[in-house]
Design brief:
Layout (H helix, E strand, L loop, with lengths): L15 E7 L5 E7 L2 H5 L11 H17 L7 E4 L2 E3 L12 E4 L11 E3 H4 L5 E5 L5 H14 L4 E6 L8 E8 L2 E4 L8 E3 L4 E6 L2 E5 L5 E2 L2 H48 L6
Parallel strand pairs: 4-6, 7-8
Antiparallel strand pairs: 1-2, 3-5, 5-7, 8-9, 9-10, 11-12, 12-13, 13-14
C-alpha cells in the first residue's frame, strides 16, 4: 500500500515555479519545479508560494489599514508582494508582504518591481506575515537583509503554526543593526511611520488609532458606514414626518382660530 506523502517530505512545501523547456522534437513544455528556501527569500515574478487563511486575512486587513492611513499623502505607495530591487551591492531583491514608501514620484504607475536606485527612495516600513513553512526567512535572515537595505522599520507578524498564537516583533534601525522595540502594557506595537498601534486579538492582528480606537477592516468599515447612512436616512425621514405633522397642526390651529373669530364677530354682513 502506498503511504501518503508526509508534509515534511513534500518537495513543493515552499512553493513552485513553472520552467519553460524545449524538447528535442521542438515541442515546448512547462515543468513544475519546487522552490527552495533561497528561492522564497528572493522570489521571481510568477512563483507560487502557498499561503494560509490566517496569513491572507492579516495581509488583506493590514493592507487596507495602511492604505487608509496614507490616503492623504500623494507621494505614498503601499506595496503588496512587490519585488523590491535594492541599491546595495551583493544584496539580492526581496518581495515583502507589505511595504510603505514615501516620496514616490508616481505612486499610481504600473510596476512589476520597485527599483530603489531608479525611484530614489526606499521603504520606510516593511511588514512580513510569517508563513510557518519558511518562517526562518522572516524572523532571522531578513532582519539582517532589511537592515543592510537601509529600511528604518521592520515589523514581523509571527506564527509558528497556523493556529497561532500571534507574536508581534518590531525593529527600528540603528547604526550597528536593528533594535527590537518593546510592546506597550497592552501588548501593542507603535508603527510610527503610519501612526497606528498594532495589536492582536486571538489569532489575528488588529490596528488601533492613536487614541486607541479599533480600526476595522474594509468589510466592517463598509458595514458601519452603511448602518450609519441608514440611521441618518431614518432620522431624516422622521424629521420630515415631524415637519408634516407640525404643518398640519398649524393649519388646524389657524382654522380653529378663524372659527373662533367668526363666532365672536357673528356672520359677515350680507351684501
Amino acid at each position: 500500500m502506498i503511504q501518503p506523502l508526509q508534509p515534511q517530505a513534500d518537495p513543493f512545501r515552499y512553493g513552485w515555479r513553472y520552467v519553460r523547456n524545449e524538447r528535442p522534437d521542438g515541442s515546448v513544455e512547462f515543468d513544475q519545479v519546487p522552490l527552495t528556501l533561497e528561492d522564497v527569500l528572493h522570489p521571481q515574478d510568477g512563483d507560487v508560494l502557498p499561503q494560509n487563511t490566517p496569513h491572507d486575512r492579516d495581509w488583506t486587513y493590514l493592507g487596507e489599514v495602511l492604505r487608509g492611513q496614507v490616503a492623504d499623502d500623494p507621494t505614498a505607495l503601499i506595496t503588496s508582494d512587490l519585488i523590491i530591487v535594492w541599491d546595495v551591492p551583493g544584496l539580492k531583491h526581496h518581495s515583502p508582504d507589505l511595504g510603505v514608501i514615501f516620496g514616490v514620484r508616481d505612486p499610481q504607475a504600473k510596476r512589476s518591481s520597485f527599483s530603489v536606485a531608479e525611484e530614489g527612495v526606499r521603504p520606510a516600513l516593511l511588514i512580513e506575515i510569517v508563513s510557518p513553512a519558511y518562517r526562518v526567512n522572516d524572523v532571522v535572515t531578513k532582519v539582517d537583509h532589511y537592515h543592510r537595505a537601509g529600511v528604518p522599520w521592520y515589523v514581523i507578524v509571527d506564527r509558528e503554526d497556523m493556529d497561532g498564537p500571534v507574536r508581534l516583533i518590531g525593529y527600528r534601525a540603528e547604526m550597528d543593526g536593528y533594535v527590537q522595540l518593546p510592546l506597550d502594557a497592552r501588548g501593542r506595537l507603535w508603527l510610527e511611520p503610519v501612526g497606528v498601534w498594532l495589536g492582536t486579538q486571538g489569532n489575528r492582528v488588529v490596528c488601533y488609532s492613536e487614541t486607541g480606537e479599533e480600526i476595522g477592516d474594509y468589510v466592517q468599515v463598509t458595514k458601519n458606514l452603511a448602518a450609519a447612512e441608514a440611521r441618518a436616512a431614518e432620522a431624516e425621514e422622521r424629521a420630515r414626518e415631524a415637519e408634516g405633522r407640525a404643518a398640519e397642526a398649524e393649519t388646524k390651529l389657524r382654522e380653529l382660530e378663524e372659527r373662533l373669530r367668526q363666532s365672536r364677530n357673528g356672520p359677515p354682513p350680507q351684501s
